[in-house]
Amino acid sequence: MCRQALKAKRDCCVFSLSGLQEPYANKQSNKRKMSLRKVNISILIVAVVIFLLVLHHNFLGLSDFLKRELTDANPLGLQPVDFIPAVPQRLADERNDKEISVVIAASDERLGGAIAAMNSIYHHTRSNVVFHIVTLNDTVDHLRLWLSNSALKNLRYRILDFDPRVLEGKIEVDPQKADTLKPLTFARFYLPSLVPHAEKAIYVDDDVIVQDDILELYNTPLKPGHAAAFSDDCDSITNKVAVRGAGNQYNYIGFLDYKKETIRKLAMKANTCSFNPGVIVANLTEWKLQNITKQLEKWMALNVVEQLYSRTLAGSITTPPLLIVFYKQHSSIDPMWNVRHLGRRGSREKGETGHLTQSDQRGYSVPQHVMSRM
Q: Which helix (H) or strand (E) holds 337?
């Protein structure tokens, strides 16, 4: 009896212990499963994060490439439209590796001149020229049509849509002459924004014909601290255009109103020879360091308030601020790169080869600037 009682008691204890151990074992198992699940989730999260980081890095690399080659958007409203990244290999092998950035403005009414300028540059050089064509949005399609010509199809170029709103408050608009305002003439003020990744660039007006290798012009030496080089405009006395009370169009007094105190305070000599801003060789690194664009905008805005420009010489509004900012702070371009008056009857300038003319809207023959190395 006692044995049976002890056995029953022992069995009861074993049963009781077993009953207690089962929940404990299940609880431990659940803990292990939860821990394993947390580890798996952590690994999954880490893997997803790594994947996203790799994807983000690749996207940034692609984005940077696109910004560099295709979409150089900037706060000035200069938006790239398209870009031909390379010429056929056959032509590439024939050309130098030296890349030369050339900026040119192309308004709708002067596309013919711009195309002629680019064509003359392209066919007189073996250098790797990239054209940065600044135009207005409603001219893009017309420009593409011109560029699709078989003689120009191998040009490397970018089309930039210039937003005229960047000029608000910087130029005075006469409501009666609003149609005569040409926003693209101010494109040269924004060269670092037009060619953000270049250290040096050339700007040419759309009435330029190049008769020699643009590489020589590109290699124009700039003195230390100079952001640009221009060709001086002083001609012989027989070719100066005298204007009563305003000197002539080749001196500072022809572009600036020396009666204004703001101009007099600058201590610039009125008879200083002006320069031609239709051809510019720019050191863009120095341009940015000196905030040249901001300086130009400052004088543009001051003119709106104080009327600082001379009104006696065709109302030029692009040359005066350049003359102020670059007074005795610019290098010189070989004058043979700026043969003027070609097309003006009776002119016999050195290097002139004939009457190359361009008609304005009234049908008159007007002079073109011809860059030549005769």
A: none
